Amino acid sequence: xxxxxxxxxxxxxxxxxxxxxxxxxxxxxAVSIPVFAGHNVFTPELAEKMLSDGDxxxxxxxxxxxxxxxxxxxxxxxLADDITPCINCLIGCTDRGLLANxxxxxxxxxxxxKYECPPITPTQTPKNVVVIGGGPxxxxxxxxxARRGNHVTLYEKREIGGAMIEASAPENKADIRRLIAxxxxxxxxxxNIDVVQKNVTTEDILNENCDAAIVAVGGRERTxxxxxxxxxxxxxxAMSVLTHDVNVPGESVAVIGGGITGxxxxxxxxxxxxxxxxxxxxxxxxxxRSTSSAAxxxxxxxxxxxxxxxxxxRLEKVADGQLTLVDKFGNEQLLKTDAVVLAAGFDAxxxxxxxxxxxxxxxxxxxxxxxxxxxxxxxxxEGFVAGRQI
Length: 390
Ligand SMILES: Cc1cc2nc3c(=O)[nH]c(=O)nc-3n(C[C@H](O)[C@H](O)[C@H](O)COP(=O)(O)OP(=O)(O)OC[C@H]3O[C@@H](n4cnc5c(N)ncnc54)[C@H](O)[C@@H]3O)c2cc1C
Ligand SMILES: Cc1cc2nc3c(=O)[nH]c(=O)nc-3n(C[C@H](O)[C@H](O)[C@H](O)COP(=O)(O)O)c2cc1C
Ligand code: SF4
What we know:
The structure is a single chain. The protein is α/β, with parallel strands linked by helices. Strands 5-4-3-6-17 form a 5-stranded parallel sheet, sandwiched between helices. A 5-stranded parallel sheet has the order 8-15-9-10-11. A 3-stranded antiparallel sheet has the order 12-13-14, with no helix packed on it. Helix 7 links the parallel strand 3 and strand 4. Helix 7 packs parallel to helix 15. Bound molecules: flavin-adenine dinucleotide, flavin mononucleotide (FMN) and iron/sulfur cluster.
C-alpha cells in the first residue's frame, strides 16, 4: 500500500517517516491476503516497529534500497549503522531521473547505475591528502580517498555536516540528520582519516606536507550589504532562524528571498506563530517549481498557509519597522514589519582553491558549493569523484 504517482510523491518530502502505516494497518485488519506496508521507511528500526505493530505482513522499500542496495542484508546482520540513509530528497531518483527521462541516480549513492564508474580499488602509491571542509562534499571525498588507502586529514572549522546542519533543522527534513550522523560515524571509525577542528587558511595548507588537496569549503551566505539599514537589529539570517539560534521579535516577519530556503524558513516562522510575507525579486517565487519536487511541495504548503507572497520587488531599505521595496519600474512600496529574515542565497567560494592551485605544486580539486552553489547531490558526487581519483 504505497501511493505511486508523482503528484503524491512530491508531497512525501513534507510527510513524517512511515506516514502510511495507519492506512496499511486498516487494510491488513480488513483483508486476509498479505499486505505490504511502506512509504518513507528508511530505518530497520521503523520497519521492525511496523511489523510488530501489525501495520503489514511485509515492509516494502523503494528509495531506501536505491540509497543502499545492501539495506536488507545490513539490517539482517545487525549493521543498521552502516546503511547509507535515503534523505527523502527526490533529487536523484525523481527530479533528475524519472521526471527528466534520464537514468535514475541517487544523492547519497554516487555509484548507483553509474556503470561507467568502477568500484574503488586500493592505490599502489598511498598519499597524504588534505580535505578542507566537512560538509557532504568533504566527507564523501575523505571517505573515498581513505578507502583507496590514502591518509586523509579533514579540516572542519565548525562541525561535521556543513550546511546540512541548517538544511536538516526543520522537522520535515530530519532525514538529512541521519546522513550527518552516518558521515560522523564513518569518519571516526576510519583509521586512515584524522578529523581536525580548525579554521585553516591557504597558508596553513601550503605549509603542510601533503600530496593533494580537496577544497570543499562550501558557499558564502549573501548578506545584501548594499541595502540601506541591513545591519539593523531587526534583520536576521535564515540560517540562524532555522537552527533556532535567535529569537525573532514581534508578530510580523518579512522573508527576503523566495527560493527553497526562503520558503522553508517562512514555514518554520509560521510554526513559531508569526505572520509571514515572502518578498521575491524575480517574477515568480520558487522559480524552479517545474524541475524540483521540493519546490512543488513547498509551493503547495505555502498556498495552504497564511503566508503572503510578493514578487517582482527588490528590498532597497530597512528603517523604522518598515521596508522600502522597489519594482522593476522604480516604483516604491512600503511594507511594515517587526523583523526581516534574509534568505537571499549563497555565492560560491572558488578563491580558496584558486589560491592553492596557483601556489602549491600539488593537484587541487574544488568540489561542491565552493565550486558552484547547488545541493547535496552535487556535493556528494563531486566529493566522491575527487576522492576516488587520488
Ligand atoms: C537552509 C538550507 C537548506 C538546504 N536544503 C537542502 C536540501 O533540502 N537538499 C539539498 O540537497 N540541499 C540543501 N541545501 C544545500 C546543501 O546543504 C548544500 O548544497 C551542501 O551542503 C553543499 O555541500 P558542501 O560540502 O559543498 O559545502 P557545505 O555543506 O557548505 O560545507 C562546507 C564546510 O566547510 C567548512 N569550512 C569552510 N571554510 C573552512 C576553512 N577555512 N577551514 C575549515 N573548514 C572550513 C564549513 O564550516 C562547512 O562545514 C540547503 C542549504 C541550506 C543553507
Ligand atoms: C525512481 C522511482 C520510480 C518509481 N516508479 C514507479 C512506478 O513506475 N509505478 C509506481 O506505481 N510507483 C513508482 N514509484 C513510487 C514507488 O513505488 C513508491 O511508491 C515510492 O517510492 C514510495 O516508497 P519509498 O518511500 O519506499 O520510496 C517510483 C518511485 C521512484 C523513486
Ligand atoms: S535521490 Fe534522495 S530520495 Fe531518491 S533515493 Fe536517493 S536519497 Fe532517497
